[in-house]
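Human: We require from you a protein record containing the residue sequence and its fold in token form, and nothing else.

Assistant:
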Amino acid sequence: MKKILSFLLVIIMCVAAFAACSQPAADDSQSSKPAQTESAQTSESDAAPAAETEIYFLNFKPEIADVYTEIAAAYEEETGVKVKVETAAAGTYEATLKSEIAKTDAPTIFQINGPVGYQTWQDYCMNLADSQLYGMLSDQSLAVTSGDGVFGIPYAVEGYGIIYNNAIMNAYFALDGAVVASMDEINNFATLMAVVEDMQAKKSDLGIEGVFSSTSLLTGEDWRWQTHLANVPMYYEFAENANYDNTILAGLAAKTIEFKYSDNYKNIFDLYLNDSVSDKAMVGNISVNDSMAEFALGKCAMVQNGNWGASQILGVEGNTVANEDIKFLPIYTGMAGEENQGLCIGTENFFCINSQISEEKQQASLDFLVWLFSSDTGKAFVKDKLGFIAPFNTFSDDEKPSDPLAKEVLAWMAKDGIKTVPWTFASFPSQEFKNTFGAALLEYANGTKTWDDVAQIVIETWASEWDNVNG
């Protein structure tokens, strides 16, 4: 028994010794853990660039959302960097941005509507003064600045007015008793009204359902009226402020407004409502796309919109309007000297880079925008599909948009003696102001509010929203 126990003890000691020899020293054992961790970190690091440099672009314009999706795919194919594109529903951009910016995966690129938007989002706007993108601007005065900083980069110079179908207009001029003989004679509101009312009376002869397309006052679809049309009377009011040489700055400083030229607004708005494809009672159910389709299908001769609307016209299935017949006319309202008035031309939306994200994502976002406005692939998208008149020195003359409305904007900008109406609506105090304005217009169209009611609402809402924004 003693021999057996001794033998077992020897075996146990040998096994223990072998095990001890096979284990690393204590220091080696500890040093092996960082090696494993480093390996894991290396794996994470290898995966990190894709996640870290993924771009999230929150788009403002629903009508070009599909194009941005194509652009994102093209950029990822060329660079390997993924671009996530989300588009806010019409009229909800501010609310969407407020929700998205608070998320962990926040937008890396977003848009503001000029100096007013900067006041709201300045804590999230990266200083772009030293960026390549800012250096590419043809006119750096267009950027949104504060002190020595640059916080918003304009990406398109756009124009809007009354789009008309030249073929229908020529058919009208050929009718016996036509008020004028050519478009050259329509250079003020009085003449425009006479022509429109005569055309409306002869709509059967012209094969149209109304002179103007439907006035879209569906909630979220009223921006053509509460923003773009409102720009005209407010420009003239702020232009009279001798303390400022810029109507946007005059507007930003205006605690109150007179809505001095509200009757001029009413002039053209009534013309839109009364000489239209749709009855006034229906306008609350009509979208911008509906309105543009009416024009594209030849149901009307005119529609108020901007050069971005070319794709909406040309892309409608069954479009009957030839490229060469899509033209622009200024929005005449009866102002003194408007014979020399041009289109409303400017820029409302500016790209911003989120200052609260990592430097890697900031640079990746800037790289994407530089690619969009300087590479052959990107510029082709800008020119042919987005239809932007891009304010960057990277575009040669033959790289500028070729769509008919972009050409019209360029032509109106080049006319001698014609004064462009700047985009003064950048000074409007808030989206809520515009929404309230639009709601009042719908009630006016429906007959539940008078025009005096509308004017009073506009005046009071401006004052209250100015106080809300400016404290």
Summary: The radius of gyration is 30 Å. The longest strand covers residues 158-165. The chain has 19 helices and eleven strands.
